[in-house]
Amino acid sequence: MMIRILSVLLALIANQILAEEVVLGLSQNRVAITANFDGSKILIFGAVKRETEIQQEPPLEVVITVSGPDQPVTVRRKEKKLGIWVNVDSVDVDAAPSFYAVATSGPFHDVLSSVEDLRHKVSLPMAIRSVGAPTNVEDAQTFSEAIIRIRSKSGLYQMLEDTVIVDQQTLFQTSIAMPANLTEGDYETRIFLTRGGKVVSSFSTSIDVRKVGLERWLFNLSRQKPLAYGLLSLAIAIAAGWGASAAFRMFRQT
Amino acid sequence: MQIYLPIAEVSVNAFLLLGLGGIVGVLSGMFGVGGGFLMTPLLFFIGIPPAVAVATEANQIVASSFSGVLAHLKRRTVDLKMGTVLLIGGLVGAGLGVVLFNYLKAQGQVDLLVKLCYVVFLGIIGGLMFFESLNAIRKSRKNSAPTKRKNHNWIHGLPFKMRFRVSGLYISVIPPLIVGLCVGILAAIMGVGGGFIMVPAMIYLLGMPTKVVIGTSLFQIIFVTAFTTLLHATTNYTVDMALAVLLLVGGVIGAQIGTRIGTKLKAEQLRILLALMVLAVCGKLALDLLLQPSELYSIGASGGH
């Protein structure tokens, strides 16, 4: 009996020294935005590597986040002026991810304590950084809530509680659907292992989202040589206009 | 088939765009209107960002008016001299319009401005067209003689007179310059050619003969919209070539079909249908401005600083 308790205690100590580590796999580590891109589903799976026996209590939980590149955005609010709805107040948010998904293996607040959430910036409100809201707008908080609401509606922000499947406290997997209107960039993928709300291990990697082929070429041209891009658009337009009238004339004569 | 638009950064159905281009093309062929004033609001409805819709539509109009002006050049119904004067005003106007557009974009009011312009102009044009064609139908039933247009008004008293041989006019260059300027501003802000304003202005204000009006208007629209396209492409990066090409293909095919349908149907009754459709688009846009939106907040890219 004594030996048994001792071994459990030893195991507990050993666990705290030798952390559990994440070995991760992704179904794809790059997403190519092609001309017929229609969203993408990424399978994230992995295993927990450990030198010791599996600790039973508290159970191992997994939190996975995928976040797109941060962008500064301006949130505007409409008000009724002279009978029509116009943008009146605006708040500049320093950085809001263009895409953000959180997947957990249980209810969010059971899996991650609010202290750890604050430290690692996991939940949606934490991921949006807004420093120095203008003083003329009183309820600046509602503006960042609006970002979450609007982007959640279009599938850009996702809170996926209870979607990570954890098997035998060792294997885990989830899938995250990325919508069609993605911005390109490095999508940081983070995995947190938690026990009792505390992060015991974390791992991060990135998914490369890029426009490729024609999309890449057109986008680069429009930014790097806007004049050439504009002239090319005009050339296409004029050729199409001339072609249509010429084709129609031939069609009429025959 | 979904297609990802590289500049608008949204994914839309390619057949929807081809269809929209086609339907607006049929209408423009049938009624002899540019179609930009219908296409741009339709692009708003399917979720293309307004800035991209306006810039890309200007590009598409270049194609449809080029196609049209070729036919008019053959028939010698283009007043190149008048077109050039209108064009000078138009280019200045387009420049001013893009500056105004960018200023309001930074202020977050560009959507409002574009939509307000649409409500006002679609309302006026739709209303005028509706009553004009009602009158035309009534007249054709009574079979009365057409009223004579008066030829002399205050415009003929202005200085800097010039002779326009093709139009058979000897008038001051100031009114055509101002007409060109106003249409240029509208072209830049609304993403339209402005033919629907230019044509009545040329007939009623400048007193040009109707047979040269459409060709001349198309001639100067090509240059003004081409200039607008370039300005939007170099300052806002909002011209989406993929979107333009899809709309073009549908548009030019639709226009040819529309021309054939148009010759077989009764003009006044079709015009009433078009007027009703214009008023419906106008009504939808007006309701958006007047009713409380379900989402009061909107997200825009940080601009202006």
Secondary-structure map:
The complex is a heterodimer of chains A (254) and B (305).
Chain A: H1 2-17, E1 21-26, E2 30-33, E3 40-49, E4 60-67, E5 70-81, E6 84-97, E7 100-104, H2 108-111, H3 114-120, H4 124-127, H5 140-153, E8 157-160, E9 165-167, E10 171-178, E11 185-195, E12 198-211, H6 213-224, H7 226-253
Parallel strand pairs in A: 2-12, 7-8
Antiparallel strand pairs in A: 1-3, 3-10, 4-7, 4-11, 5-6, 9-10, 11-12
Chain B: E1 2-5, E2 10-13, H1 14-31, H2 36-45, H3 50-74, H4 80-107, H5 110-142, E3 161-164, E4 169-172, H6 174-190, H7 195-205, H8 210-235, H9 241-264, H10 267-290, E5 297-301
Antiparallel strand pairs in B: 1-2, 3-4
GO cellular component, one term (chain B): plasma membrane
Subcellular location (chain B): Cell membrane; Membrane
Transmembrane segments (chain B): 12-39, 85-106, 112-131, 177-205, 212-231, 237-258, 270-287
N-to-C SSE series of chain A? HEEEEEEEHHHHEEEEEHH
Major β-sheet annotation of chain B? 2 strands, antiparallel
- How many domains would you count in the coordinates of chain B? 1
Helical segment count of chain A: 7
Strand content of chain B: 5-15%
CATH architecture descriptor name of the largest domain in chain A: Sandwich
Pfam family, one (chain B): TauE
Subcellular location (chain B): Cell membrane; Membrane
Organism (chain B): Shimia litoralis
Main location (chain B): membrane
